[in-house]
Amino acid sequence: MKLEATTRTAGRNAELRHDGRLPAVVYNKELNFPVAIEAKAFDRIFREQGMSSLIDLELEGTNHQVLVREVQMDKRKRVPLHVDFYAITAGQKVEVAVPIIFEGTSAGQKEGGQLDVQRREISIYVLPSQIPHDIKVDITELTIGDAIHISDVAGQLPDTAEILDDEGLTLVTVLAPREEIEEEEEVTEELEPEVIGRGADEEEGEGEPGSDEDREE
Description:
Elements: E1 2-7, H1 13-18, E2 21-27, E3 32-38, H2 39-49, E4 55-59, E5 62-73, E6 80-87, E7 94-103, H3 107-110, E8 114-117, E9 121-126, E10 135-138, E11 147-149, H4 150-153, E12 162-163, E13 170-175, H5 178-187, H6 212-216
Parallel strand pairs: 1-4, 2-6, 7-10
Antiparallel strand pairs: 1-3, 2-3, 4-5, 5-6, 7-9, 8-13, 9-12, 11-13
């Protein structure tokens, strides 16, 4: 997927957005420079590709392969305000969060159970050329009490990929109908496990994107 960019001058972000363009920054441990991109073109690519697909960023005749690392959104309008692109180095693995697509309706749901999706992505360390667009998980055979864990879908990943999450973590499970759950809660009180999400840390030693002041102008 290609996206054209132009160099920009810091401090003119509001003007760029008014003209239908987005301020952005391209960075890694060796690069850090501001660019501007067409807002509609980026929105289309981001909706189709998400954050796990490579983008060919064309800047004044030079192509930079990049991943979307962060998108600052307008909380009210839900439109992008600023984008951080991470520039890929050929042959060097990168950390990406691959989205999970759950397909079908589980047998347990047809029996009155409730589908409980606990994770919608898996973090992996992989070569840029082998980044999966997504991982499809068929849930049709799940009955009440069944679950699918990260380890169950590891075989869909490239052989060279390293899973960064605990492979024992649950992706999805089918819970008993609400009435049964409420009855069990009346009999015994149990503390629910705490689910702690892991933030997407940048590659160790990599450069940082532009300042918050640059993003929020």
